[in-house]
Amino acid sequence: MEIRLDLLPAEKRRKLDLEGGLPFGRIFTDHMFLMLYDEAKGWHSHQIKPYEPICLDPAAAVFHYSQTIFEGLKAYYGVDGRIRLFRPERNMARMNYSARRMCMPSIDEGFVLKALKTLVDIEKDWVPREKGSALYIRPLMMGTEAFLGVKPSSEYIFFIILSPVGAYYKEGFNPIKIYVTDKYVRAAPGGVGDVKTGGNYAASLMASEEAARLGYTQVLWLDAVERRYVEEVGTMNIFFYFEEELVTPALTGTILPGITRESVIQMARSWGLKVSERRITIDEVIEGAKTGRLKECFGTGTAAVISPVGCLAYKGKEYIINEGKTGPLAKKLFEELTGIQYGEKPDPYGWIQFVP
Ligand code: COI
Question: Please, what is the average pLDDT of the chain?
Answer without folding.
Answer: 96
